[in-house]
């Protein structure tokens, strides 16, 4: 008994899946180049680690801005998580 051949529909699904993955990869690469322009100028100033400590209110405002960017699909989930962790590490608890 011979091996069963793949159906045409399965081949179409596989091709569509590969095309979708290629499009997603291209979008991610394009976003990586534009990633620096996503933050507002005042946000960039707050993120700069120039030695002064940010207040809890400033850090929470940055976290809110980060959530807004993620919900607006301006940044990917991985970038969102990395930045959120960095910000929350800078938050001091007394």
Main sheet specs: none
Based on CA inertia axes, which overall geometry fits? rod-shaped
- The helix-strand sequence is HHHH
Structural class call reads: mainly alpha
Q: Number of DSSP helices?
A: 4
Low-confidence stretches: none
How would you describe this protein?
By secondary structure, the protein is an all-alpha fold. It has two domains: 7-35; 39-94, no CATH class. 68% of the residues lie in helices and 0% in strands. The radius of gyration is 21 Å and the shape is rod-shaped.
Describe what is shown at a glance:
The chain has helices at residues 8-34, 41-47, 56-71, 77-90. With 94 residues, the chain is an all-alpha fold.
Summarize the SSE layout with pairings.
Blueprint: H1 8-34, H2 41-47, H3 56-71, H4 77-90
Helix pairs in contact: 3-4
Keywords:
94 residues, mainly alpha, 2 domains, 4 helices, 68% helix
